[in-house]
């Protein structure tokens, strides 16, 4: 199905013929053999795109060039396995070819999760790290499209700030906006001028807007769906990682940890942390943050206060501990900010939030799904990343128990093979804890976990 707007036709280079093993972090949790067995089984079921397509009816929202639920996301599983020597490059190349079978979108609808940037992330994962000549011609063609798109999106965002208007979620968020494009560029070429330009924009996003002293400058005038709604007449403030300010906090912190020269980035992190601190609940025992907040809740500084809302706002109370809006994403963003600022108190709070959640079966049981976005796999990958950099050694001890929960759930890879909600993402998280090494591809950069 062709995409609308500017596009690029991309023909893949030949697949690589060599494998690369990778070393892990020095303080990583121990490998879990059962997790690797399940990951291998899922990957085997997803080896051939034709088999997967024949076994399921494609939904209208599933595009090959999509990262969340298309071939680009499934390609990441096979690329990671090939880098680690647990799978062949033939499978990875088949899925990359499937991802680029459409004319790739480089229009305004393109983002980290769709179109040329999504395919570019997957192809870059196959070409890196340290593999001279691997898919390099393909990357040069994709770079042209993604750089042009990013410059256009950044220019529009700066113009909006110059006008003093409030931002829409899709301007800055991870899935659709500039935080997602920034995550791609930080992974692809951290020293490129476009990467610094995106980080400059994200820093500027946190600076006060004229006439908006009562609300933070990232407050968006729409509902959490991204659209205007009478139930959110004054919009909302979004703390989530998928669609809120959490990804901006994580990305700026990752840039500081890489020593990128972005003026004002530490001040921006401080501003974001100051605001999220006002919404921190149960700070001393079992910390958590709401997924989003409204103007009505601001005076009480508590997410349960929404007297003028006509309907309950379950997402603004304690969210389930998912990656997208819960502890899975927000605690990791806070830990990264703490590492960037050398703030040991903040780091302890973030790690306590994760540890108390993992030790609370009531909270973990709220994750009825298994995928990366809303389910156990996302919590598992986040917990592993946090444990690998934690000052709280008890975190690592909880990883096997959480992995066992995920392993025990039924897995039908062909029912939903996707990255974000389905089997490919589950397999990648289990592959991480199964091998006990940091992902060779850095695939979880699409979640701003690393």
Q: What would you note in describing this structure?
A:
- The structure is a single chain.
- The protein has 450 residues and is mainly α.
- It is 47% helix and 2% strand.
- The protein has 17 helices and 4 strands.
- It has helices at residues 33-45, 49-55, 71-83, 89-99, 116-127, 136-163, 169-172, 178-188, 193-205, 246-257, 265-278, 327-341, 344-358, 361-364, 376-388, 394-408, 423-435, and strands at 7-8, 104-105, 237-238, 292-293.
- The strands form 2 sheets. It has a two-stranded antiparallel ribbon.
- Helix 8 packs antiparallel against helix 9 (193-205) and helix 10 packs antiparallel against helix 11 (265-278).
- The longest helix has 28 residues, at 136-163.
- It is globular and about 55 Å long.
- The two termini are 33 Å apart.
- Mean pLDDT is 89; it is low at 1-5, 14-26 and 305-316.
What is the chain-wise order of helices and strands?
EHHHHEHHHHHEHHEHHHHHH
Q: Note the total helix count.
A: 17
The beta-strand count equals 4
Helix content: 40-55%
Largest sheet: 2 strands, antiparallel
Mean pLDDT over the residues: 89
Arrangement of strands in the largest sheet: 1-2
The separation of the N and C termini measures: 33 Å
Structural class comes to: mainly alpha
Q: Taking Cα atoms only, what radius of gyration do you get, to the nearest Å?
A: 21 Å
Strand residues, percent: under 5%
Shape: globular
Low-confidence stretches: 1-5, 14-26, 305-316
């Amino acid at each position: 199905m062709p995409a609308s707007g500017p596009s690029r036709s991309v023909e893949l280079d030949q697949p690589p013929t060599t494998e690369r093993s990778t070393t892990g972090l020095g303080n990583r949790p121990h490998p879990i053999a059962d997790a690797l067995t399940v990951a291998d089984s899922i990957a085997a079921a997803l080896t051939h795109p034709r088999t997967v397509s024949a076994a399921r009816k494609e939904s209208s929202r599933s595009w090959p060039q999509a990262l969340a639920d298309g071939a680009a996301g499934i390609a990441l599983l096979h690329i990671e396995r090939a880098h680690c020597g647990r799978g062949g490059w033939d499978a990875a190349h088949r899925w990359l070819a499937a991802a680029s079978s459409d004319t790739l979108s480089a229009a305004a609808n393109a983002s980290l999760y769709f179109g040329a940037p999504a395919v570019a992330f997957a192809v870059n994962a196959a070409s890196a790290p340290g593999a001279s000549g691997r898919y390099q011609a393909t990357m040069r063609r994709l770079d042209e499209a993604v750089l042009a798109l990013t410059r256009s999106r950044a220019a529009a965002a700066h113009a909006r700030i110059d006008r003093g208007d409030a931002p829409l979620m899709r301007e800055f968020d991870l899935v659709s906006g500039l935080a997602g494009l920034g995550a791609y560029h930080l992974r692809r070429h951290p020293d490129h001028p476009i990467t610094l330009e995106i980080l400059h924009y994200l820093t500027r996003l946190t600076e006060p807007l004229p006439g908006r002293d009562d609300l933070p400058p990232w407050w968006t005038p729409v509902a959490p769906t991204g659209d205007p709604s009478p139930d959110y007449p004054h919009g909302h403030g979004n703390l989530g990682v998928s669609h809120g300010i959490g990804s901006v906090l994580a990305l700026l912190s990752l840039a500081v940890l890489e020593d990128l020269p972005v003026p004002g980035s530490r001040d921006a992190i401080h501003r974001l942390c100051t605001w999220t601190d006002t919404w921190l609940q149960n700070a001393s025992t079992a910390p958590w943050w709401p997924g989003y907040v409204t103007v009505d809740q601001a005076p009480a500084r508590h997410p349960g206060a929404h007297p003028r809302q006509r309907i309950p706002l379950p997402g603004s109370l304690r969210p389930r501990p998912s990656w997208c809006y819960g502890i899975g994403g927000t605690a990791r963003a806070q830990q990264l900010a703490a590492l960037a600022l050398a703030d040991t108190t903040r780091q302890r709070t973030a790690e306590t939030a994760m540890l108390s959640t993992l030790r609370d079966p009531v909270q973990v049981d709220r994750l009825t799904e298994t995928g990366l976005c809303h389910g156990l796999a996302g919590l598992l990958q986040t917990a592993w990343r946090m444990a690998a950099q934690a000052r709280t050694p008890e975190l690592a001890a909880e990883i096997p128990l959480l992995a066992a929960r995920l392993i025990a759930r039924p897995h039908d890879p062909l029912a939903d093979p996707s990255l974000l909600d389905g089997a490919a993402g589950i397999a990648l998280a289990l592959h991480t804890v199964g091998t006990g090494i940091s992902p060779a591809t850095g695939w979880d950069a699409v979640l701003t976990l690393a």
